[in-house]
Design goal:
The protein is α/β, with parallel strands linked by helices. It has one domain: 3-Layer(aba) Sandwich (Rossmann fold). It has seven helices and seven strands, in the order H-E-H-E-H-H-E-H-E-H-E-H-E-E. The chain has a seven-stranded mixed beta sheet with strand order 3-2-1-4-5-7-6, sandwiched between helices. Strand 6 and strand 7 form a beta hairpin. The two termini are about 25 Å apart.
């Protein structure tokens, strides 16, 4: 809930300060499509029908199929602005460059406002298929470079599955290394949860 509130706040700032831009948001770990659907609704409330895009990444076809099904309840105009990519999130930058080039070719200038990560495994699927420390860090490096000023990285990391704690600690170290003059990073975690730690990181890129 806290992450989505932050995302909504950032997108409102883009609407107020950057009228006329084509807004882009990324769901870097599509899963069952809940964040993709959330981003589509948020952007639709802040932009004209075709003045936004949501790029949704996952390596599992079952995840993309589930996300498309979840998006079925959206109006057609919102579904048309969703782009489902069967790619690892460490290919984020190349996909963003291609999308930006396509927008420029149509006479539109994009603004990358939000990138959301929900790390771990796809609920209800093979728990051995998870996000991994190295590819997640590579993706975060690309995301931090591509994100426009005033944009937000929203990263929800989990430590209860094999490899999860290592990934969570790596994400925290990466976030802690972002220069304070350029980024404001907040860490949120439940202090009364003894097992299966999870942490929300919100990294706001200063204008």
């Amino acid at each position: 809930m806290m992450g989505r509130t932050a995302v909504s706040t950032v997108l409102t700032r883009f609407k107020a300060g950057q009228a006329g831009w084509h807004l882009v948001a990324v769901d870097a770990t599509c899963g069952n499509g809940h964040d993709t659907r959330f981003l589509a609704r948020q952007l639709a409330a802040r932009a004209d029908d075709r003045a936004y895009s949501v790029l949704s990444f996952d390596i599992q076809q079952s995840a993309l199929d589930s996300a498309r099904s979840a998006a079925g309840e959206l109006p057609e105009a919102q579904r048309d602005r969703l782009f489902f990519l069967r790619q690892s999130h460490d290919q984020l930058l190349a996909a963003l460059h291609q999308h930006k080039a396509e927008l420029l070719a149509s006479g539109v200038t994009s603004k990358l406002a939000v990138i959301m990560y929900n790390l771990g495994f796809l609920p209800g699927s093979d728990k051995r298929v998870t996000t991994l420390k190295n590819t997640t860090l590579a993706s975060l490096e690309q995301a931090s470079a591509a994100l426009d000023p005033d944009g937000l990285l929203c990263v929800h990391a989990y430590g209860g599955h094999p490899g999860g704690l290592e990934e969570l600690e790596a994400v925290e170290a990466w976030c802690s290394g972002l220069p304070f003059a350029e980024w404001m990073v907040m860490r949120y975690a439940a202090c009364n949860k003894a097992r299966n730690p999870e942490v929300l990181f919100l990294a706001w890129k200063r204008p």
